[in-house]
Please model this.
Amino acid sequence: MQSWWPPSVLLLILGLASIHYARGCRTLRAVSATNISTWRACSFFLGVFLIWVAVGSPLATYDHELLTVHMVQHLLLMTFAPALVLLGAPTMVLWKGLPRFARTGLSIQFRKPPLQRVGRVLSHPAFCWIVCSATLLGWHIPSVFALGLQSDLWHVVGQASFLSAGFLFWWPVLQPWPSVSVWPRWTIVLYLFLATLPCDILSGFLAFSERIVYPIYLLAPRHFGMTVLDDQECAAALMWTCITIVYLVPSAILTTRLLGPQNSYAGEMSGVDLSCVEFAASDPQRVEVV
Model:
C-alpha cells in the first residue's frame, strides 16, 4: 500500500472520457426531446470506475502477489467494466459530444466501403468470440503470464488487451449504436454459452490441478493465510462462478424476449453500420435512447 500511487495517465484518460460523456449527454438533452436515461449514464460511469479499480486503485498493488487479485482484475477488465460502459450507449453520447465539424468529417470517412467492411468484421460474433477466447487463454499460458508480471510494459499490454477483448465480446450482445441488429438473436444465446467453455476449461484446470501452475507466485509474500495452491483454487472458483452467473443473466433476458409475443429478430447481414453516424449528425432531434 505504501508503494501505491494513482497512475496519472490512466486518471487523465478516464477523466477526459467521463467529461466528454457528460458533455455528450448535455448536448443530447439540448437537441432532443429525449436523452440518455439516468440508469444508462450511471452504468457508464460505474464501468469507468471499475476500470480504475482494476488498474489504478490500491487493489492493483496485490496482483503480483495474489492470483485471486489478478483474476479479479481480469474479470473487471474483461467482463464487468466493458458491459457497463456499453450499456451507457457510449458511442452515441461521445459522438454527440464532438464538435459539429468533427462529426461531419468523420461521417464522410465512416461511409467509405473499407471502413464498413472493417466494422462488420470487428463486430462479427465469431471474430469477437475468437479474440476473447484467444486473449483469455493466451495470457494464462504460464510463460506468458510470468512475462506479464515481470515486465511493466507487457503488464500494461495484457491489461489493455483484456479490456479491448471485453469490449469486442460484449458488442454483439448489447449492440450499442451504430450496431445493426441483424443476426437472429437466438445465436447470441449460443454465443454466450460457447463463451463459457474456455473459461470453464481454464478455471477447471486451475481448480483441480495438484501443482502450482504459476511458480512465480512462490516467490511472493503470502496474505490472508492462503498458500499458493489455496490462492490458485480460490482464483479458479471465482472465475468459474462469476462467468457462469454473468453470462447466464443476458442469456435469460434474451431467451425471455425470444419467447415473448413481440419477437421480430431477423436480418440479412451482420456488423456495424458506420454510415449511421451520418443520420445522427444530420438529424439529432430523432436520437432517442431509453
Summary: Residues 264-290 have pLDDT under 50 and may be disordered. The chain has one domain: 8-286. Residues 228-258 form the longest helix (31 residues). The chain has twelve helices and no strands.
